[in-house]
Amino acid sequence: MAERPQLVNNSPEDIETDECMSTYTHVFSPDLLIDQVAFITGGGSGIGFRIAEVLMRHGCDTVIASRNLEKLAEAAKKLTSTTGRQCLPITVDVRQPQTISAAVDETLKTFGRVDILINNAAGNFLCPATSLSFNAFKTVMEIDTMGTFNTSKVIYDKWFKDHGGSIVNISATLGYRGQALQVHAGSAKAANDAMTRHLAVEWGPSGVRVNTVAPGPISGTEGYRRLGGSHSESAGVFRSIPLQRAGNKTEIAHAVLFLASRAASYVTGAILVADGGAWLTSANDVERLLVFGLQRKERINSMNIEDEINSNQPVDRASICMIIVEYYKNAHIIFHPKIKEKKEKKLYSVLRKLRLILGILKLNIFTQILIYIMLLLLFLVVNSHSFHWIFSVN
User: Fold this and answer.
1) What is the pTM for the complete model shown?
2) Is residue 339 over pLDDT 90?
3) Residue 237 maps to which CATH number?
């Protein structure tokens, strides 16, 4: 049998963590973006962090924006120390145009210009459509699609309309073939791809170019960890990719750098797929869909069996938890800023622990429901400081 040919890996330097690279080889001229300013949403970690680093290594100052100012400030310090360029961390929720407007005003006050917008903020997870809540779908659409439009429009109105500029959206190939477990993210990214073309047409006369980079499996990212990239790699799934490997963050940053720079001065409305050819050849993960659905069904059944053991009137406590959480979300409770970002995750944790405690106590079902309702009321009427110990976000 003929031996498998030795693969040539020409990938650039990169590291898995959100740290700056100790060495970097310039593919483009180091002054390609000299004294330009880039506004990067989701710039504090993952691909966004590496995009900021690579742009700064080519002479660009940056603004990195997301909801976690503490994380952004730490990232900005690393980026400035390594590159010698300015990096301004700003708190932004891309779902709220007023926060974007304030951030752009601060950017213009600090730098006096914005040349590049990178729409990188996103949210994703694996979930079959049958198990996807209305709120979960809406949230992904709000972050990915509405967030991209909100940020683009604010910056266009405040600067690009009169001065021109370059917008690069970070998308995905999920919608190209109807990726299993990804109806939410695939729909959002497909909308963004359409938005790229529409805005390229409408804003072109103002000197604004709008393009998209669609990454494939990229190591060292939260998406890679959350969506099973490491498992796919160890299982040999990447052998179906023409380039036989996952990509890295620097490779995506280089694609963004090209589209953002004068090297792509006549490119607009384009979607640059940077996935090693993965979407062309990789099989859709229908097996994972079936396994996921089976596991979820078994989890729900086990909860209901536990309820039957502990009560003469069985109830799915998990459903009660979800009802409370949905009500809690819609109540728009105002938390201390330090707590606000992690409140939903922590509330889920508290409710899960409460479910276990009630199971051990073997209380009757009406008492259990009353306790859940009382907990919800406490969250509604007690200020955040009184319950700081519950959330323990230090």
Assistant:
1) 0.74
2) no
3) 3.40.50.720
